[in-house]
Amino acid sequence: MAKPKNVDEYLQKLEGHFAHPILSKVRQIVHDTVPGIEEKIKWGSPSFEYKGLMMSMVAFKENAAVWFHKGALLDDPRALLEATSEDTKSMRKYRISSIDALDEEGLVALVKEAVAKNESGEQVKDFNKPDGRYDRSTRLEQALSHNSRARETYEALTGYKKREYVEFIESAKQEATRQRRLEKSINLLEQGRGLNDQYRT
Fold it and tell me: Contact 11/25 with Cβ under 8 angstroms?
């Protein structure tokens, strides 16, 4: 799918998809709660900016997700938010499986909290401190040295997308799992794809 130019185009491409009414409603709630909030397309998906990046929303195959970029700072009394992994420092996501499952009051409260955090300029402690564990993968480097097509794709990726591959492989606890993930990674790279491109609508 070609990268959408704006949020209207992103939602138009979702017409007929279960996530369309969910993200359309999320968008309405955000604008009703924060008049004048700025919309942009970042990383291929809609984002909302108010005194800095505040939120994003994405359609996946089985659910829609609303990302709060300072989610770790939010009180979240209804426990709507979750971290992608235990290593996720700041971002938190609210997964929504259907329009009926959308907690509108809870979302409004989270949006208001997110506005307050951006107004205050507060950041999660050590948010920008690099985590050196996933800077490189010897396994991946060795595999790429024997596969020119995969290596060409990998070298053309952004630093963020390279890191996704390294973390995917090296975060596995079992050697067998690391090997399976390495094989999957090389296969995707041979196809010219980033690790999570299939989820970026």
Answer: no
Q: DSSP code of 47?
A: E
State the total domains in the chain. Answer: 2
pLDDT digits over 125-158, tens only?
655 555 567 788 999 999 999 999 999 999 999 8
The secondary element (H helix, E strand) that includes residue 140 is helix 138-145
Q: Strand, helix or coil at 127?
A: coil
Find out whether 90 and 71 touch, Cβ atoms under 8 Å. Answer: yes
Same domain, 104 and 144: no
Which residues are bridge partners to 64 per DSSP? 59, 96
Q: In 3D, which of 166, 111, 156, 157 has the Cα closest to residue 135?
A: 166
**DSSP annotation of 82:** B
Instruction: Match 């959308």 to its residue by tokens.
Output: 102
Domain span at residue 153?
Answer: 132-199
140 vs 186: CA distance, rounded Å: 8
Contact 74, 92 (CB under 8 A): yes
| pTM attached to this predicted model | 0.64
Here the CATH number for the domain that contains residue 86 is 3.90.1150.200
- Collapse the DSSP code of 59 into the 3-class scheme (helix H, G, I; strand E, B; otherwise coil) and give the result: strand
* CA dist., res. 4 & res. 23, Å (int): 15
In angstroms, rounded to a whole number, what is the distance separating the alpha carbons of residues 91 and 105?
20
pLDDT digits (tens, 9 = 90+) for 165-193: 998 999 888 999 999 999 999 999 999 98
